[in-house]
Amino acid sequence: MRSVRIVAVLPLLLAACSHAQRPPDPAALQFLTEPDLPPLSAPAPELVLLPVAPPPAIAPASLYFELDAAELTVDARKVLQAFFDQARQRPEEEIRIEGNCDERGTREYNLALGQRRAEAAKNYLVDLGLDASRITATSNGKELPRAPGDDEEAWKENRRDDLIAVSDDEPVSGAVSQASR
Predict the structure, then answer these.
(1) Of 58, 122, 132, nearest to 90 (Cα)?
(2) pLDDT mean for each 10 residues of the chain (181 residues)
(3) How far apart are CA 31 and CA 155, in angstroms?
(4) 28 is a domain residue
(5) Where in the sequence is the domain holding 112, given as residue range(s)?
(6) Beta partners for 107?
């Protein structure tokens, strides 16, 4: 008798446990279908390029030295860092560094000191990552003073390096006239 009861209850249990699933709603399946694509023969949309402004020009800069010195000061390093930041945005431009001295000392001494100053700035820019082949270091000695006079203020202004971006039509070597500064 017991076996009859189990057999009779078993179909009821199976019917209760099985969940009849409804078919999915066609609207719910719409996202699974491919979107309406244009026919393969349709032309691709035209690509429109917007003009890109060139990076700003490299601004000339000057850095200053102590008397009879070619070591870079903290302020000079800040000027060189700012100049480097501009120059790396314009990799096509050449750089000229002109070392200058005050009027004290012989012509030969001042030419050598101006060259050491220009080389110190060049080496610093190269250490920052500028390509050395872009940079020309030259000396004007005491030949191109910026400030006239025979006093400490004039001498301080004339102990400097001038950093200049050189365009293709401007010669890389040689002195810069007072008017172009």
Answers:
(1) 58
(2) 50 53 64 60 75 88 97 98 96 97 96 98 98 98 95 96 82 40 34
(3) 79
(4) no
(5) 61-171
(6) none
